[in-house]
Amino acid sequence: LDSNNSSGVAGQVLSTTSTGIDWVNANTVPGAGLWIANGNDIYNSNSGNVGIGQTAPQQKLDVSSSTTYQGILVRGNVAPNICFVQNVGSTPTWKAGISGNDGAAFSISTGAASADKLIIKPNGNVGIGTFTPSRKLVVAQSNVTEPSGIDANTSILIKNNTWSGIQMISTEATGNFITFGDDAAGFAGRIQYSHATNAMQFETAASEKMRITSAGDILIKGTLSPYTSAN
Fold first, then answer.
1. With contact defined as beta carbons under 8 Å apart, do 81 and 99 qualify?
2. Tell me: the pLDDT tens digits for 36-84?
3. What secondary structure letter does DSSP report for 196?
C-alpha cells in the first residue's frame, strides 16, 4: 500500500512524489534506469545509452573493464552468434553475422542468404569462399573442391572456376614487388615492376640479374648498364 492506502497494478513501483509515496508506472520514473518486464523479455525504460563498467556510455551498449580479456561473453548450445540486422521491428532484415560454429570454426557471414564468407578453422587455416581451407589461406570463387596435386608446401591457394590472379596497384611513380627470403638471411630474391620505367626486374642474392624493358628487350647481368635496380 502507498501513503494513500492504495495498492498498485502490474508494472507500477512505489516512488516518492509531491503527494507522498505513491504507485507510479515504472517507465515514467525519471532517471531511475529501470528494467521493465514485457512477457518473458525485459527492456530498459531509458532512451539513452547503457553502460556496464562505464559511467558515460558512447553507444547503445558500452562495456568497459580494467581487467585483461574481460568483455562480452556469448554462450550457445550449438553455434553462438552475433547478428547484425537492418530496420527496427518484429521482422528485421538480416545483414551479417559472426558465428562460433560450435567450436569447429569462427565464421563471418554477410548478405541476405546468411552464407559464410570468411571462416577461420581451429588449426589457423583461413578460407574465403570455401568452408574447408586446407592451406593457411585459401581464396575460392565459391565453395569449390580443391584440386588434387597441390604441393605440400603451398601456403596460399587461389581457386576460381575461370582465371585466377593477384593484382597489385600502386601510384605511377613507384612500383610493385614480390620478395623472397628466409629467417636467417632476410631479403634474397625479388620480382619487381617499376612504374617509372615500365620494366620488370628480377633479383637474386639481393641484386638485379635480369630485366625486361618497356621495349621488350631482355637485359642479363653484365648488360644492365645504364640500368640499375634503383630505376
1. yes
2. 777 888 777 677 888 888 889 898 888 888 887 777 877 777 777 777 7
3. T
